[in-house]
């Protein structure tokens, strides 16, 4: 049976490791920040402790078959519902929050590791997560190519009808559009003409 001192140690370590990841997310002002990551890691550690030590009083009862891994296994699937709440589906096929959702899922795994007494594995995983979140992001922005989307924004003066220019541009780049939307720009004398295409194109801004 696990002692209360060991239980306290595991829960505190889980809270601290969850906080380290949560601070990085809190710094970027994501919905799942410091407290969320701490609670997820702490709760996962508690569930692992319960799974491993909570049923020892009936473990040796005849005709009782227990699988201590079942409670912990449900954490892995159950945390997906919480992670889904951090994902935002925006316009233009843009998805935000996937990294935070993956971080919550990993933090749950860290909590399970701490609850199972695997302190080294939990510490190494926390360090790697922080490296990925903090150090990899600048390199990703540097080397990743812009994602193509299906629209072009054309800025034009109010009263100017750029139909001929639009047709010329679309023919020049061999593009076939499906919709044209005229939007009021920030300036009173300017309109934004949004053109949506069938094939993915890179967004550009043309002044006519």
Distance between the termini: 77 Å
Low confidence ranges: 201-208
Extended strand count: 6
Largest sheet: 4 strands, mixed
Strands of the largest sheet, in order across it? Answer: 4-5-3-6
Transmembrane segments: 7-24, 36-59, 71-90, 110-136
Main location: membrane
Domain MgtC/SapB/SrpB/YhiD N-terminal: 11-141
Family: Belongs to the MgtC/SapB family.
Plain-language structure description:
The chain is of the alpha+beta class. The protein folds into two domains: 140 residues, no CATH class; 59 residues, no CATH class. Helix content is 54%, strand content 17%. It contains six helices and six strands. The strands form two sheets. It has a four-stranded mixed sheet with strand order 4-5-3-6, with no helix packed on it. A two-stranded antiparallel sheet has the order 1-2. The longest helix has 25 residues. It is elongated and about 85 Å long. The termini are far apart. It comes from Panacibacter microcysteis. It is found in: Cell membrane. Keywords: Cell membrane, Membrane, Transmembrane, Transmembrane helix. It is a multi-pass membrane protein. This is MgtC/SapB family protein.
Quick structural summary:
One of its GO terms (cellular component) is plasma membrane. This is MgtC/SapB family protein. This protein has helices at 4-27, 34-53, 69-84, 98-115, 119-143, 163-172; strands at 88-89, 95-96, 149-157, 177-184, 190-201, 205-207.
């Amino acid at each position: 049976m696990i002692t209360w001192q060991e239980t306290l140690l595991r829960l505190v370590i889980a809270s601290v490791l969850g906080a380290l990841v949560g601070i990085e997310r809190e710094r970027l002002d994501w919905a799942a920040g410091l407290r969320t990551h701490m609670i997820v890691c702490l709760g996962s550690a508690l569930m692992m402790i319960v799974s491993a030590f909570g049923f020892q009083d009936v473990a040796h009862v005849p005709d009782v078959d227990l699988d201590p891994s079942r409670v912990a296994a449900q954490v892995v699937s159950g945390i997906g519902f919480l992670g889904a709440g951090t994902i935002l589906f925006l316009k233009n096929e843009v998805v935000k929050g996937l990294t935070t959702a993956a971080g919550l899922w990993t933090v749950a795994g860290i909590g399970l590791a701490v609850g199972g007494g695997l302190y080294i594995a939990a510490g190494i995983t926390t360090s790697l997560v922080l490296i990925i979140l903090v150090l990899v992001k600048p390199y990703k922005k540097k080397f990743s190519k812009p994602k193509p989307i299906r629209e072009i924004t054309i800025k034009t003066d109010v009263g100017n009808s750029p139909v001929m220019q639009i047709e010329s541009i679309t023919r020049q780049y061999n593009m076939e559009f499906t919709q044209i939307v005229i939007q009021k720009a920030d300036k009173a004398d300017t309109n934004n003409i949004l053109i949506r295409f069938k094939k993915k194109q890179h967004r550009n801004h043309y002044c006519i």
